[in-house]
Fold:
Amino acid sequence: MENLEHSIKTLIIECLNLEEIQPEDIDSNASLFVEGLGLDSIDALELGIAIKKKFQVTLNADSRETRDHFSSVKSLARFIASQSD
Amino acid sequence: MNHKPCFVIPDYNHKDAIGRIVAALHQYRLPILIVDDGSEEGTKKVLENLALKEPLIRLFRLDSNQGKGAAVVRGLEEAYAAGFTHALQVDADGQHDISDAGKLLAQSRKFPEAVVCGTPLFDKTIPRGRLYGRYITHFWVWVETLSFDIKDSMCGFRVYPLAPCIELTEKTKLGKGMDFDTDILVRLFWKGISIRNVSTRVVYPEGGTSHFRLFKDNYLISKLHTRLFFGMIMRFPRLLFRRRGKHQEHWSQRSERGSLMGIRFLLTVYRLFGKYIFKIFLVPVISYFFVTGGTARRASIEYLQRIATSADARGLPFAKPTLANSFRHFLSFGNALIDKFSAWQGDIKEQDLDFPNKQEYLDLIAGGQGAVLIGSHHGNLDICRALAEGIQGLKLNVLMFTEHAERFNRVIREVNPDLADDIISISRIGIDTAILLKQKIEQGEYVVIVGDRTSANTPHRTQNAVFLGEQATFAEGPFILASLMQCPVYLIFCLKERGKYRVYFEHFADTIPIPRIHRREALQAIVQRYADALEALCLKTPYMWFNFFDFWKQPVSTVEEKRG
Structure:
């Protein structure tokens, strides 16, 4: 799981050109948006596409609870892991 | 201001509930002025006996039946002559909840200059036809007062400040029948009296007699609204001035509540009366916005000025940036509103559309390839819904720049539950949205977004492009989105030209590549191409531009404060 979290962090940094940040600087539990990393909706779009591409994530269009999976690195890792099961 | 209230009850042949009403009013220890409106013997006796038992009652009798309005006026005059300052009117049929009288009186004590109106919360006893009738009256009253202050003009449960009422009844002939309640309230409003609304439960009493006569009273009420409508036209400037003063107090609250309520009621009118009657309503409403909307009017004239300059430079014909043309611009917006309603309602069919490169569109759909469609606030994107209608399985996902997307969605769906479009608010975009949208595109669905509004959530994500001769700010989000979807991108606009809806469907790019290096330059070039396409349309149909704010003075992107 920790490996997965690390590769998500690397992906975030690469995808969004956050040059001054190291993977270790990102708190796995912190919110990616608003407080935490302070990403905006366009970052979310870019990140979403990158995650889809790298981890082949698919979502159920009818499900309304998907939002919770994407709030922090930890929840993202959990979700991606559950998809590959 | 002094506050010395009493009750006024007009009674015509209501003998069953009056005893109960008087008993309930007793607790307030205030004089009860009952005006017997020439009732028949039975009711006359009941009232006389009641007056003997209850010392608070002062009974007056009109020799012949003159109508509710006349009876109330008599009561108000008697109250004023006896030295009262306020009167709480109560109907004699028992439909008012007397236990709320305390609430109304308390408001009146707090705001003695105002009329305190009971606004009815109906329970299930109200006949449905009555409810619709009330909505029509609500709409008229809003037009007549150019305001949403009066929530319900028909409920007789209200506290009048007597001095302005007497002044009014001495000078003006008010409706004597069922039209009275609305008539006096609108006219008090015109005099500058403010309105306070207090909600109260109203019951249509079982077995109770109502004196509402279908034809005669509807005739009276129609006559009333005709009279009041012209009264409004005559008082137009003063009413506008009044509204303006209020705007400055709490503009934000009012405008939001107003617009949602406004949309809902315009929709009701549209559905009840159809397009042509709606157009008649629209002219005073648009005139009102034109006269009061200083910012919008200036933006319109400035825009027309830019059109004139750009068109002139290219040797194209153009409209002069005059007030008259600006009004035409506003009217065009009003008509677009009607078209929007028609489109939501599903009244605009495919055959109403003029669609030159329809084949290209059909080929795209047949190919099963999803696409991003970028529209604008030039013309009427909603009309394009009609395009989706006839085609099986075509699904649109519309990204909207509004915080109220969900409520808006609800209103639209009330109108037409068959609309399959998925409306997504820009403010709710998250990682999941991106993944979902991409999946949808891969399944052949379409994503629709406008390119000419900047988002309040990402104010720095903008690009400047030359538009009608000067740098303007455009959001980069829609173009980044289109790029990420890695799919064909089309521009789509719908303009009304000579009574027909003309669809412009233009191939914009197979995919939009945005390289990592020189990203900004690449984005800028794409935004400029969009701005050029928009400019060409503006020059062609200048009145279809529906951005009524200074488009060129939006915050220009400088630093990216969000990062870091």
Remarks:
- The mean pLDDT of chain A is 82.
